[in-house]
Amino acid sequence: MKELDLLKKDWQKSDNTFVQVSENDIYIMIHKRSSSIVKWILIISILEVLLWTLLSLFSNSDDYLREIKHVELIPYFDALTYVNYAVILIFIYQFYKNYILISTTTSTKKLMQDILKTRCTVQYYVWYNLGMIVIYTIIAFTVAFIYNPQMEVLKEKIASNSNVMIITVGVLFLTSLLFFGLFWLFYRVVYGILLRKLFINYKELKKIDL
User: Fold this and answer.
1) Does any domain span residue 201?
2) How far apart (Å, rounded) are the C-alpha atoms in residues 73 and 59?
3) Which pLDDT score, from 0 to 100, does residue 94 have?
4) Does any domain span residue 11?
5) What is the mean pLDDT of the chain?
6) Is there a contact between 64 and 105 (Cβ–Cβ < 8 Å)?
7) Which of 21, 205, 36, 32 is nearest to 108 (CA)?
8) 65 contacts 73 by C-beta, under 8 angstroms
9) What is the spatial distance between Cα 155 and Cα 146, in angstroms, rounded to a whole number?
10) Is 7 a member of any domain?
11) Domain limits for position 37
12) Burial, 34: exposed, middle or buried (Cβ in 10 Å; 0-12, 13-18, 19+)?
């Protein structure tokens, strides 16, 4: 009951104790929140690149290609890796630019535009990464099936029994789907939460701008 008594006392206080928040105060608060969200998007994307770079040191495709004696494929894999890193660095640079724009803007309309631009960039980044995961998975399975000597037994079984081919394709499809689903869930949770918060800020700004 003590809590109820305290609430009654607060309610009985003068109306002057309630501070009205102006539209400018709301804008400053949303501006600060939006800047913080975009900063976290930038930080997470950099950490993600560092994580994948670290993991690549423990699972080097060049070593695998040397093991199956097809070193002629190494330049192609290296070229794909360089292109992938170049594109990701461009995205990170865009995240940095968006962070600077949102941090320095002084207009409600401009902040709304920058928020939408940031959301769009992040969505493109997520879909690009998911697309590259699909491409890498297809290439990995194809190279393993065609060039890995250990696949010769499987090839003979497929040649003699068409059902083996169906089972193999089914297993590969389900494995790829599971792999893709895990990454989609990761991006959905990590970037999805930040994008939802950013869109809430956009809707609040829209009310102010009316």
Assistant:
1) yes
2) 16
3) 94
4) no
5) 83
6) no
7) 205
8) yes
9) 9
10) no
11) 22-209
12) buried
